[in-house]
Predict the structure.
Amino acid sequence: MEKKLDLSKSVYDLVTEYPEVVDIMKELGFSEITNKVMLNSVGKIMTIPKGAKMKGVSMVDIVGAFMKAGFTLTGEMPNLSGDDTQGASMPPSGVAAENSASTAAATAVKAESVEASANAVASKTPENSENKTDDSVQDTVQDSERVEQLKSFLKRLGTGEELGAVREDFVSQFAHVEASEIMKAEQGLMREGTPLAEVQQLCDLHSALFHGSTIHEQMDAEHAKVEAVLEAQEKSQSVVTLVETVGHPLNRLTEENKALEALIEATKVKVASKTATVDDVNEVRQVSIHYAKKGDLLYPHLKVAYDISGPSLVMWTVDGDIRDGFGRLARAESIDDAWYEEFDGLLTRAQEMIYKEQNILFPICAENFSTEEWYQIYKDTEQYEEIFGVERVAWAEAEAALAAKAAPTSGDSNTIALIGGSLTLEQLDAMLNTMPMEITFVDHVDINRYFNDGEKVFKRPTTAIGRDVFSCHPPKVEPIVRGIIESFRNGERDNVAVWLEKVGRPFYVNYMAVRDQNNNYLGTLELVQDMQFAKEHFARIK
């Protein structure tokens, strides 16, 4: 089958039609063709002849290379004399193409002499600068109507007219301009008697006049736009990949959102018919666990590790409002029109949060979090109960990485000498994890340094180790935490104890100032103990 290469088509179209064009063009010096971004942007408006002119590659070499590869060339052969006047039609036959190539070679030689003449003009000494350009340049530079217009703009600048006014007129008449046209206009001025020195002095003004209007600049701008789009697509694809990875934290959060969306739609029907009950509220209230995962694992890490505070400042607060709203409805003493109205409004806000998560929060996390950070977040999700029927599925890649990381190293000296004796690291770790309470230690500069392991009611992600304690709390709770720690630091208090009920069980939370033998503040210890056993004990002995 005959391979016809139409020189009037864009490089992009030619590569699409004949993929081998990439290798041929690369060999000829067009290395940019291997860049997909360039090919998909500049390549769509660039033809081979235009590219050859810009790169200074001889069309003779190009024609020969494609003929050698078995192509028959068709389309328009450009005039290589430097003008943009009529091109010569490229005949379809290989023989005719050979003849045309010979003509092109002669033309190319003439073009080279033109360039040499132009360079000679530019290198004239100041004392000869008032002379006109030599005859060879004058003969080869044909002032087209466009060039005449450009000269008029340059002349206006030469008379001192304000750049802004001249540029405004230029932009209204020219969508773009070739660099060669600018050169011709400047050469035309010199031919008419404008001293080279004056043209050189106005060079910066000329540049400012045409800035952003040359083909090169416009292609660079388009290139930048395409790169931005492709970058956005790449980022978008990154979140899609993670969301579709079975067992990945974003996969599980997304599955929970799908289940929540379906539940909200079904519940809205009940709310509209005023048949919804507190049981429906409690079913939707499972979203509190979903929000807790975001608040523990995503928001603080974005803020502390990547200085992205928007989600923690805005979305975290909205999460709390929605959660608290469902709590009020669940505790309401009666169900009336106002109750249904508030329920419907909260369901709508929860739907809006689903959209924000999938289109804002998750993509931001996907773009910034490293694979190792996702492994740790995956490990921390073990602490949270399943909701909306979405089961926790193993992420094989993370499981393997975490297992390798946890493998003990042999031969290490791990004995810790204490005032009351000595313990190995394994013994100390096991002892702290055996204690029937949740233990947290925050150092003297408010950095989380230790959480004991095990199931917790108050979730503590391991990703929080090493960051400040305040970032782990919602905005409305942060001032309270700061107040407690500050009272320990300045010696006003030694402990703050709180009794509260969570998941139907009583808890005793004790915050204690840790001080050395000289009463210097070392940090804050938090102990959380489930007191259900004591409640049941005293109930039995009454």
Summary: The two ends are 99 Å apart (CA to CA). The first helix runs from residue 11 to 17. The mean pLDDT is 78.
